[in-house]
Structure formats: C-alpha cells, structure tokens
Amino acid sequence: FLGKRVLCAGCGAGVLSCLCAKLGAHSVAAVDPSPVALAAARAVLAANDYDAEVVLVQGRADGDLPELLESQPRGGGKKGGGGERSSPCFDVMVSERFLGDLRYAPPLLHLLAARRRWLKPGGRVLPTRVGVWVCAADFSQEASAAEAWQKPVLGGMNLAGLAPYAAAASIVDAERVSSVQPAELLSLDLASASPEEALSPQVPFCLELRPDRCTTALVVYLEVQLGEEAGAGKVSAAPSAGARHRQVLLHLPAPGPPPARALRLPGAEFPRLEGRLSASLERGGEGLAVSVSVVARGEGGSELLSSTA
C-alpha cells in the first residue's frame, strides 16, 4: 500500500481504509452508499487519527463518483503536500463491505463493476480471489457480532466506536453442519472476472449427507483469498472456520400446498442431496435473489423428494 492510491469500494466501517492509511497509502478514497456505515467509518478514522487522510464519499463505487472523489488532493492530510489533482484511476482497490459480510451479495457485483471502471491497468484488487460454497445444515442460530469489536484488532487499531453499529448476524456453526464436505459453486479471479460470471445461472452441486444428522437448510458462503503469494491469508465464512461472518441461509420447505412446512431430511434415509443454485439481481440492482432447487436421493440413487427455496 505504500505510496499507492487506494479505492475502498464499499468502505463499510472504515477499518480497511484506516489500515491502508496506516500502511502508508498515498491517498485513500472510501466510498459507501450507507450513511450509517459512513458514520461508523468517521468514528473509526477519528479514533485512530486518520480522518484527515481518508476521503469519505457517500455513493456506489461502480456509479458516477462525485467531484470530491475525482479531485482528491495529492499528498493531502497529515502527509502534507500541495493541492494537485489526482486521476480517478487507482493503484489498489479493496472492499471492507465485501470482506466484512461474506454473503453472496451485491457487494461482490459492485466490486467487479467498480474494478472495470476505476482500477488502473496493472492495478491490484484485494481480495484476489473468491469462492462461493454451499453446505447442508440442521438449523441456524442467531449470534451477535457486537462482541467482535470490543477489543482492538488489526495492528492495535481502536475499533470501540463500531460497537453501536454492530448488527446481529445469522451464523451457522460447525455443530449444525449436516453434510460431509461442502461443494464449491464458483471460483472467481477478482482481477479479471465480470459481474455476469458471478450471476451464472443454474450452478449444479452435490452434497453427501451425514447419517447422524438431519438437513433442514442450505448455507451459501464465501471464501476469499487475500493474495496470490505463498502464505497469503484467507478469510472464510465457512461454519468450520468459526468466523463471525454472515452467510446466506436457505431453509428448505417440504413439498405440498401452503402454508409451507420446514423440510427435515434424516441423513440415514437421504444420503445424498443434489441441487442447482441460481442468483439474479433484484429490481434496482440493490439486492440479490438467490434460489436453490434440490433433489434428495436414497440408496441406489432413486429420487425421493424435491424442494425449492
């Protein structure tokens, strides 16, 4: 990050933007459509004394950026320097909203679209790669994400200002997983993938179910690679990772007329679950509709029942 112009496309609470400034970025433009997120980011930047080095902009990074972003001062803030204008082409692009909420969600699409529009040729995107995974689960449990911000993390930065903004997160832990192994749905290189690739229709998958568990839902989650170098870190919302990241939880309804009842598949009777997942943008592009159709198969491969969520 040293000496680089950084665009945080979906800055969320501003932790990554603050970290980029701390690591010596030339300038940081932090963009987010949410005024609540920007209020949290403002608190984090002020608490760590980087509020003069990061430009906060309300809006979507893949849209028309305001004049404020296109006219960032070179070497402004504490680093000093004159008032030269900088190009709206960035050396590095990151996304805290994408990393902090590892659901199969619009931030992924916004990141890919913003990269095509604003990243300088040869620039870097962090994270570098994302995988979309699915596993089976018995049920979800609610857990609060607030405790994650009660003590400093990421190089000792003060994140106590985030506590009022921490939202409850739907989290499935390893104890609720009912499939033997997860299945990978997509693998995207964020330096080259298009938004259309992230919306690939009808991705097939197959899960082997544990005989000692029941299945009532599917969990869709992301795993992201933070670099291509050996030893580069990975962030995962997998239940086995024990992380406090949100997941997409799809409850499977039992076949039959409404009102729908929850489906319950004993693994001893239904050893395999086959399905297809599709994702599409909702009206306005601010939401992502994820649906899945599944077929449970018994011994010998016979189809026993199907469900769509």
UniProtKB/TrEMBL annotation:
A GO MF term = histone methyltransferase activity
- Disordered as annotated region, ranges: 66-86
Q: Which domain of life is it from?
A: Eukaryota
Q: Where is the Protein arginine N-methyltransferase domain?
A: 143-254
Gene Ontology biological-process entries: methylation
Keyword field: Methyltransferase, S-adenosyl-L-methionine, Transferase
Which Gene Ontology CC terms are recorded?
nucleus
Give the matching Pfam families: PrmA, PRMT_C
Q: Which residues cross the membrane?
A: none
Q: Where is the composition biased (Gly residues)?
A: 74-84
InterPro entries, per the entry: Arg_MeTrfase (IPR025799), PRMT_dom (IPR055135), SAM-dependent_MTases_sf (IPR029063)
Q: Does the keyword Methyltransferase apply?
A: yes
Transferase is among the record's keywords:
yes
Protein name listed in UniProt = Protein arginine N-methyltransferase domain-containing protein
